[in-house]
Description:
Elements: H1 23-31, H2 36-50, H3 67-94, E1 101-105, E2 114-122, E3 141-145, E4 159-161, H4 165-168, E5 183-189, H5 193-199, H6 209-214, H7 225-236
Amino acid sequence: MSYxxxxxxxxxxxxxxxxxxxxxxxxxVEENPDSYTARSYNRSKEESSKRRCGYCYESGHNRKxxxxxxxxxxxxxxxxxxxxxxxxxxxxxxxxxxxxxxxANAGWQTDGESRLMxxxxxxxxxxxxxxxxxxxxxxxxxxxxxxxxxGDLPMRHGHKLRIPLDQVFEGYEGAMTARVSGVLAxxxxxxxxxxxxxxxxxxxxxxEDAVKEMFKNCTRHSNLSHERNEARALMFNSNxxxxx
Length: 244
């Protein structure tokens, strides 16, 4: 059961506000500056002004009301939408969704050889703009060797294949060596674009769960500014947000 909780002031006991915003209390403090109530009110106000934000370290506000955090979060959210739109379009155009047959090399897991595999799952929630800087984060395609399918291995388990970002973004030069994930060599039997589009979750592009997690405990010194700048430069050839 959901309900709306009414706030009551601890000073005047009227609903709709608290002591901090109580006009009656403010009036009393102004008219009785030497009273105990006035001293307590001013002391509380002074202590509040000394509090520092856990994000920008400035005083007078907290993370919840931090303008810098709101701005950086909004920037990251817009970048993620743009990044996911490009990825969704690439996967659709190339038919790279569950059911597609591909040739891939999973390194030591396939003895360094390319094998015929079927895509069985896409880790949609793991596809985010920060993989442009750390491309191992784009290991989001799960595929099973065709010769080994039909056993007890769950469909969501298999070789992790890396989305080829160099084919998605012109000018991408991410590190493509010493990988522990699979190299997608070629698409042997893609899924038709209209059918592939049906497999892309409707929430994929705009859901912000991943961005919220990125900013959950970050500060202005660890706010993905490097990752955001690299993503923006690659996708929009710019270091500002005007292109978004």
